[in-house]
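[Meeting: bench + compute handoff]

Bench side (C.D.) handed over the final construct sequence. Compute side (W.E.) agreed to return the predicted structure before the next meeting so the bench team could plan truncations. Sequence as handed over:
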Amino acid sequence: MASSEEDGTVEEKETNNKKRTKSALATAWLTFYNIAMTAGWMVLAMAMMRFYIQKGTHKGLYRSIARTLKFFQTVALVEVGHCAIGIVRTSVIVTGVQVCSRIFMVWFVTNSIRPIQNEESVILFLVVWTMTEITRYSYYTFNLLHHLPYFIKWARYNLFIVLYPVGVVGELLTIYAALPFVRRSGMYSTRLPNIYNVSFDFYYCLIIVMLSYIPLFPQLYFHMLRQRRRVLHGEVIVEKDD
């Protein structure tokens, strides 16, 4: 009996050691990732400010930062993987929707439709995204390091109250501005007849995307409000069962 008990104790210790090692590696990776993303979005912020100071206009700003924006926004797909493998306790679906909607805006709307790149709405959502991401990744970094300044926490759970709606307005106005160009050019669209016997109209796809903001945005926004009450005011949030 003593031998089997000792074997069991050894196995438990080995299991605990493995868990601690995995946890340490995950924390190290997440810390590196969030520091890198904070730095990346700060580079974007400085590039935008420098461009506007030098040129005195927003025209041409998107083209000047497009490569950096596409890189860091696309890298954010890694966050879906973080949720999927369990090193971050966040819904894969929620994270996937947020990340993929950003990538869609960057690659399939703003980057693809050059005539809209100088629209004020593009600059609007770029400024909002930049402020949001610097705050968010800074929050995650300091939280992982167990040295979270209160003003970072305050910014994370207060600035979104204004930034989220303003960002959504910028995104919707940008998609709306793109509609005439998409309709005239027929870009990304497939008409019948064709060898695949499939029809797709990017114009109507964009309209559907705009309409999807109606049910999706309130859910994400009120989720953040609940998180704000929990983190800043210590409220216990009880989710209702469906």
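W.E. noted at the follow-up: The CA atoms of residues 128 and 163 lie 6 Å apart. C.D. will use this when planning the next construct.
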